[in-house]
Design a protein that fits this description.
Helix content: under 10%
Shape: globular
CATH class: Mainly Beta
Distance between the termini: 54 Å
Number of strands: 19
Number of helices: 3
Order of helices and strands: EHHEEEEEHEEEEEEEEEEEEE
CATH superfamily: Outer membrane protein transport protein (OMPP1/FadL/TodX)
Strand order of the largest sheet: 2-3-4-5-6-7-8-11-12-15-16-17-18-19
Largest sheet: 14 strands, antiparallel, barrel
Length: 330
Protein backbone atom coordinates (compact mmCIF):
# COMPACT_ATOMS: atom_id res chain seq x y z
CA UNK A 1 0.00 0.00 0.00
CA UNK A 2 2.89 2.40 0.72
CA UNK A 3 4.32 1.81 -2.74
CA UNK A 4 1.14 2.91 -4.52
CA UNK A 5 0.58 6.07 -2.43
CA UNK A 6 1.90 9.23 -4.05
CA UNK A 7 4.17 11.21 -1.72
CA UNK A 8 3.90 15.02 -1.70
CA UNK A 9 6.50 16.71 -3.90
CA UNK A 10 8.91 18.64 -1.71
CA UNK A 11 10.69 22.03 -1.97
CA UNK A 12 7.76 23.67 -3.76
CA UNK A 13 7.03 26.40 -1.19
CA UNK A 14 5.80 29.76 -2.48
CA UNK A 15 9.10 31.34 -1.50
CA UNK A 16 11.01 29.07 -3.90
CA UNK A 17 10.93 31.72 -6.65
CA UNK A 18 11.35 35.49 -6.79
CA UNK A 19 14.39 37.35 -5.46
CA UNK A 20 12.42 40.53 -4.83
CA UNK A 21 9.59 38.66 -3.09
CA UNK A 22 11.97 36.66 -0.91
CA UNK A 23 13.75 39.84 0.17
CA UNK A 24 10.38 40.95 1.60
CA UNK A 25 10.12 37.74 3.61
CA UNK A 26 7.76 36.21 1.06
CA UNK A 27 5.02 38.83 1.53
CA UNK A 28 4.26 39.42 -2.15
CA UNK A 29 0.84 38.04 -3.15
CA UNK A 30 -0.82 41.46 -2.96
CA UNK A 31 2.24 43.36 -4.26
CA UNK A 32 2.89 41.20 -7.41
CA UNK A 33 3.63 43.96 -9.93
CA UNK A 34 6.49 42.49 -11.96
CA UNK A 35 6.95 39.42 -14.18
CA UNK A 36 7.16 37.10 -11.16
CA UNK A 37 3.42 37.64 -10.79
CA UNK A 38 3.27 34.63 -13.13
CA UNK A 39 4.38 32.64 -10.05
CA UNK A 40 3.07 34.66 -7.11
CA UNK A 41 -0.34 35.89 -8.28
CA UNK A 42 -1.50 35.63 -11.91
CA UNK A 43 -3.82 38.62 -11.44
CA UNK A 44 -0.78 40.85 -10.86
CA UNK A 45 0.17 40.87 -14.55
CA UNK A 46 -2.60 43.43 -15.13
CA UNK A 47 -1.22 45.83 -12.49
CA UNK A 48 2.48 46.03 -13.33
CA UNK A 49 4.56 48.10 -15.73
CA UNK A 50 3.78 48.20 -19.44
CA UNK A 51 6.48 45.60 -20.11
CA UNK A 52 8.86 43.81 -17.76
CA UNK A 53 10.99 40.70 -17.57
CA UNK A 54 12.94 38.81 -14.92
CA UNK A 55 15.78 36.27 -15.01
CA UNK A 56 15.99 34.67 -11.58
CA UNK A 57 18.42 32.24 -9.90
CA UNK A 58 18.87 31.11 -6.31
CA UNK A 59 19.97 28.35 -3.98
CA UNK A 60 18.88 26.92 -0.63
CA UNK A 61 21.02 24.30 1.10
CA UNK A 62 21.15 22.68 4.54
CA UNK A 63 23.56 22.02 6.08
CA UNK A 64 26.37 23.96 4.39
CA UNK A 65 28.67 20.92 4.39
CA UNK A 66 27.74 17.41 3.22
CA UNK A 67 30.15 15.82 5.75
CA UNK A 68 30.73 16.06 9.48
CA UNK A 69 34.01 16.83 11.26
CA UNK A 70 35.11 13.19 10.81
CA UNK A 71 34.49 13.26 7.07
CA UNK A 72 31.36 11.10 7.30
CA UNK A 73 28.36 11.99 5.11
CA UNK A 74 25.34 13.57 6.80
CA UNK A 75 21.74 14.12 5.72
CA UNK A 76 21.75 17.12 3.39
CA UNK A 77 19.61 18.75 0.71
CA UNK A 78 19.94 21.50 -1.87
CA UNK A 79 17.30 23.32 -3.91
CA UNK A 80 18.15 25.38 -6.97
CA UNK A 81 15.25 27.45 -8.36
CA UNK A 82 15.68 29.11 -11.75
CA UNK A 83 13.23 31.11 -13.77
CA UNK A 84 12.63 33.46 -16.65
CA UNK A 85 9.41 35.39 -17.11
CA UNK A 86 8.08 38.26 -19.21
CA UNK A 87 4.84 40.14 -18.68
CA UNK A 88 2.71 42.74 -20.40
CA UNK A 89 -0.65 44.09 -19.25
CA UNK A 90 -2.94 41.06 -18.96
CA UNK A 91 -0.39 38.60 -20.45
CA UNK A 92 2.63 36.73 -19.09
CA UNK A 93 4.91 33.90 -20.23
CA UNK A 94 7.16 32.00 -17.84
CA UNK A 95 9.49 29.07 -17.35
CA UNK A 96 10.49 27.88 -13.87
CA UNK A 97 12.78 25.00 -12.99
CA UNK A 98 13.05 23.71 -9.42
CA UNK A 99 15.58 20.99 -8.69
CA UNK A 100 15.96 19.29 -5.31
CA UNK A 101 18.91 17.04 -4.44
CA UNK A 102 19.04 14.95 -1.25
CA UNK A 103 21.51 12.75 0.63
CA UNK A 104 20.06 10.45 3.28
CA UNK A 105 22.33 8.08 5.26
CA UNK A 106 20.80 4.61 5.67
CA UNK A 107 21.57 1.62 7.88
CA UNK A 108 23.50 -1.30 6.31
CA UNK A 109 20.35 -3.46 6.30
CA UNK A 110 17.94 -0.84 4.98
CA UNK A 111 16.78 -0.08 1.49
CA UNK A 112 17.12 -3.46 -0.19
CA UNK A 113 15.56 -3.04 -3.62
CA UNK A 114 14.54 0.58 -2.92
CA UNK A 115 17.14 2.33 -5.08
CA UNK A 116 17.68 2.05 -8.79
CA UNK A 117 21.26 0.96 -8.11
CA UNK A 118 22.29 -1.53 -5.44
CA UNK A 119 26.03 -1.43 -4.82
CA UNK A 120 25.95 -4.00 -2.00
CA UNK A 121 27.85 -1.70 0.36
CA UNK A 122 25.46 1.21 -0.07
CA UNK A 123 25.30 3.55 2.92
CA UNK A 124 23.54 6.54 1.32
CA UNK A 125 20.33 7.09 -0.56
CA UNK A 126 20.48 9.82 -3.18
CA UNK A 127 17.34 11.47 -4.55
CA UNK A 128 16.74 14.03 -7.27
CA UNK A 129 13.42 15.76 -7.83
CA UNK A 130 13.06 18.11 -10.80
CA UNK A 131 10.05 20.19 -11.81
CA UNK A 132 9.93 22.16 -15.06
CA UNK A 133 6.95 24.49 -15.42
CA UNK A 134 6.00 26.28 -18.65
CA UNK A 135 3.21 28.81 -18.08
CA UNK A 136 0.98 31.24 -19.93
CA UNK A 137 -0.72 33.82 -17.72
CA UNK A 138 -3.73 36.00 -18.50
CA UNK A 139 -5.51 38.58 -16.38
CA UNK A 140 -8.94 40.11 -16.82
CA UNK A 141 -10.12 43.33 -15.16
CA UNK A 142 -13.63 43.38 -13.75
CA UNK A 143 -14.48 47.02 -13.27
CA UNK A 144 -11.86 49.42 -11.92
CA UNK A 145 -10.94 47.57 -8.76
CA UNK A 146 -10.81 43.83 -9.35
CA UNK A 147 -8.59 41.59 -11.52
CA UNK A 148 -8.91 37.82 -11.94
CA UNK A 149 -5.96 35.93 -13.41
CA UNK A 150 -4.94 32.40 -14.27
CA UNK A 151 -1.80 30.57 -15.35
CA UNK A 152 -2.22 27.55 -17.57
CA UNK A 153 0.95 25.51 -17.26
CA UNK A 154 2.59 22.33 -18.42
CA UNK A 155 4.53 20.66 -15.62
CA UNK A 156 7.19 18.04 -16.35
CA UNK A 157 8.22 16.23 -13.20
CA UNK A 158 10.74 13.51 -12.41
CA UNK A 159 11.63 11.94 -9.08
CA UNK A 160 14.47 9.40 -9.06
CA UNK A 161 16.44 7.72 -6.26
CA UNK A 162 19.54 5.53 -6.07
CA UNK A 163 21.81 3.89 -3.50
CA UNK A 164 25.44 4.94 -3.24
CA UNK A 165 28.55 4.32 -1.19
CA UNK A 166 30.19 6.71 1.25
CA UNK A 167 31.38 8.97 -1.57
CA UNK A 168 27.86 10.08 -2.52
CA UNK A 169 27.32 13.83 -2.83
CA UNK A 170 24.65 16.39 -3.63
CA UNK A 171 26.27 16.85 -7.03
CA UNK A 172 25.92 13.10 -7.65
CA UNK A 173 22.27 13.26 -6.58
CA UNK A 174 21.64 16.22 -8.88
CA UNK A 175 23.14 14.25 -11.78
CA UNK A 176 20.54 11.46 -11.44
CA UNK A 177 18.22 11.32 -14.43
CA UNK A 178 14.62 10.11 -14.38
CA UNK A 179 12.24 9.73 -17.30
CA UNK A 180 9.47 11.85 -15.78
CA UNK A 181 6.12 12.75 -17.29
CA UNK A 182 4.13 15.87 -18.19
CA UNK A 183 0.72 17.06 -16.96
CA UNK A 184 -1.37 20.18 -17.50
CA UNK A 185 -2.14 22.24 -14.41
CA UNK A 186 -3.65 25.58 -13.43
CA UNK A 187 -2.97 28.43 -11.00
CA UNK A 188 -5.67 30.99 -10.11
CA UNK A 189 -5.39 34.44 -8.57
CA UNK A 190 -7.42 37.50 -7.66
CA UNK A 191 -6.28 41.04 -6.84
CA UNK A 192 -8.43 43.92 -5.56
CA UNK A 193 -7.17 47.51 -5.44
CA UNK A 194 -8.87 50.09 -3.23
CA UNK A 195 -6.78 53.24 -3.27
CA UNK A 196 -3.51 52.44 -1.51
CA UNK A 197 -4.87 49.11 -0.24
CA UNK A 198 -4.37 45.90 -2.23
CA UNK A 199 -5.88 42.51 -1.38
CA UNK A 200 -4.76 39.31 -3.10
CA UNK A 201 -5.33 35.56 -2.98
CA UNK A 202 -4.03 32.63 -5.06
CA UNK A 203 -4.40 28.89 -5.45
CA UNK A 204 -1.56 26.94 -7.08
CA UNK A 205 -1.66 23.42 -8.53
CA UNK A 206 -5.46 23.38 -8.85
CA UNK A 207 -5.46 19.96 -10.54
CA UNK A 208 -2.94 18.49 -8.03
CA UNK A 209 -1.11 16.43 -10.69
CA UNK A 210 0.70 13.18 -9.84
CA UNK A 211 3.89 11.86 -11.45
CA UNK A 212 5.68 8.51 -11.61
CA UNK A 213 5.03 5.08 -10.14
CA UNK A 214 6.14 3.06 -7.12
CA UNK A 215 8.66 4.62 -4.73
CA UNK A 216 9.35 7.41 -7.23
CA UNK A 217 5.72 8.52 -7.39
CA UNK A 218 4.98 12.07 -6.29
CA UNK A 219 2.09 14.54 -6.13
CA UNK A 220 1.88 18.33 -6.22
CA UNK A 221 -0.50 19.46 -3.51
CA UNK A 222 -2.80 22.44 -3.92
CA UNK A 223 -1.44 25.56 -2.25
CA UNK A 224 -3.48 28.55 -1.09
CA UNK A 225 -2.09 31.90 -0.01
CA UNK A 226 -3.58 35.32 0.77
CA UNK A 227 -2.03 38.72 1.21
CA UNK A 228 -2.67 42.39 1.95
CA UNK A 229 -0.48 45.36 1.07
CA UNK A 230 -0.35 49.12 1.44
CA UNK A 231 1.44 50.82 -1.44
CA UNK A 232 2.13 54.50 -1.98
CA UNK A 233 4.29 57.12 -3.62
CA UNK A 234 5.20 59.60 -0.89
CA UNK A 235 6.82 62.94 -1.54
CA UNK A 236 10.49 63.45 -0.72
CA UNK A 237 13.46 61.09 -0.69
CA UNK A 238 11.36 57.93 -1.06
CA UNK A 239 9.67 57.53 -4.45
CA UNK A 240 7.61 54.43 -3.62
CA UNK A 241 6.97 52.21 -0.61
CA UNK A 242 5.09 48.96 0.02
CA UNK A 243 4.18 47.30 3.30
CA UNK A 244 2.83 43.76 2.89
CA UNK A 245 1.60 40.74 4.86
CA UNK A 246 0.99 37.19 3.57
CA UNK A 247 -0.42 33.99 5.06
CA UNK A 248 -0.41 30.44 3.74
CA UNK A 249 -3.89 28.92 3.76
CA UNK A 250 -2.55 25.37 3.33
CA UNK A 251 0.41 23.31 4.51
CA UNK A 252 3.29 22.46 2.15
CA UNK A 253 5.61 19.46 2.44
CA UNK A 254 9.34 20.29 2.38
CA UNK A 255 12.51 18.33 3.05
CA UNK A 256 12.34 19.43 6.70
CA UNK A 257 8.66 18.64 7.20
CA UNK A 258 5.38 20.48 6.70
CA UNK A 259 5.42 24.27 6.50
CA UNK A 260 2.75 26.96 6.74
CA UNK A 261 4.08 30.52 6.70
CA UNK A 262 3.09 33.94 7.95
CA UNK A 263 5.17 36.72 6.42
CA UNK A 264 5.58 40.47 6.55
CA UNK A 265 7.85 42.75 4.59
CA UNK A 266 8.60 46.28 3.46
CA UNK A 267 10.12 47.69 0.27
CA UNK A 268 11.20 51.26 -0.51
CA UNK A 269 12.68 52.81 -3.67
CA UNK A 270 14.73 56.00 -3.47
CA UNK A 271 17.36 58.06 -5.31
CA UNK A 272 14.98 58.54 -8.24
CA UNK A 273 14.16 54.80 -8.17
CA UNK A 274 17.82 53.83 -8.68
CA UNK A 275 18.03 52.11 -5.28
CA UNK A 276 15.55 49.77 -3.65
CA UNK A 277 15.84 48.33 -0.16
CA UNK A 278 13.66 45.63 1.37
CA UNK A 279 13.42 43.53 4.51
CA UNK A 280 11.04 40.92 5.80
CA UNK A 281 10.28 38.31 8.41
CA UNK A 282 8.49 34.99 8.01
CA UNK A 283 7.55 32.30 10.48
CA UNK A 284 6.51 28.66 10.19
CA UNK A 285 3.33 28.01 12.18
CA UNK A 286 3.52 24.20 12.06
CA UNK A 287 5.07 22.72 15.19
CA UNK A 288 7.66 24.75 17.07
CA UNK A 289 7.86 28.37 15.92
CA UNK A 290 10.71 28.95 13.45
CA UNK A 291 11.47 32.48 12.22
CA UNK A 292 13.45 33.61 9.15
CA UNK A 293 14.55 37.20 8.51
CA UNK A 294 15.26 38.35 4.95
CA UNK A 295 17.00 41.34 3.41
CA UNK A 296 17.29 42.43 -0.20
CA UNK A 297 18.29 45.27 -2.48
CA UNK A 298 17.80 46.54 -6.04
CA UNK A 299 20.42 48.55 -7.89
CA UNK A 300 19.51 50.42 -11.07
CA UNK A 301 22.53 49.66 -13.24
CA UNK A 302 20.94 51.36 -16.25
CA UNK A 303 17.65 53.00 -17.05
CA UNK A 304 14.85 50.46 -16.37
CA UNK A 305 17.40 47.68 -15.62
CA UNK A 306 17.86 46.40 -12.07
CA UNK A 307 20.30 43.96 -10.49
CA UNK A 308 18.71 42.48 -7.38
CA UNK A 309 19.75 40.17 -4.57
CA UNK A 310 18.39 38.68 -1.36
CA UNK A 311 19.61 36.70 1.62
CA UNK A 312 17.46 34.66 4.03
CA UNK A 313 18.57 33.10 7.30
CA UNK A 314 17.06 32.26 10.67
CA UNK A 315 15.57 29.11 12.23
CA UNK A 316 13.40 27.89 9.34
CA UNK A 317 15.76 25.61 7.40
CA UNK A 318 13.36 25.34 4.46
CA UNK A 319 14.02 29.03 3.69
CA UNK A 320 17.79 29.36 4.23
CA UNK A 321 19.43 30.62 1.06
CA UNK A 322 20.15 33.41 -1.38
CA UNK A 323 18.92 34.65 -4.73
CA UNK A 324 19.83 37.05 -7.51
CA UNK A 325 17.95 38.33 -10.52
CA UNK A 326 18.11 40.74 -13.42
CA UNK A 327 14.88 42.71 -13.87
CA UNK A 328 13.92 44.90 -16.82
CA UNK A 329 10.89 47.17 -16.49
CA UNK A 330 9.30 49.91 -18.59
Amino acid sequence: MLLVCATPARAQIYESVGTRAQGMGGAFVAVSDDATATWWNPAGVAKGAYANGVIDYGQMQQPRSEHDANGQPVAAWRTRPRGIAVAFPALGLSYYRLSLSEIQPISPTAGGGVGREDQGTASLRLRALVLNEFGATVGQSIGNYLVIGSTLKLVHGSNVSALAGNNGSLDAAEALVGSGETHADLDLGVLATLGHLRLGATVKNVRAPEFGIGVDRMALRRQGRAGVALVGQPQGAVQSIALAFDADLTKTMTVVGEERHLAGGVEAFMLKNHLGLRAGLSGNTVGAARVSPSVGASLGVRSALYLEGQLTGGDDRARHGWGIDLRLTF
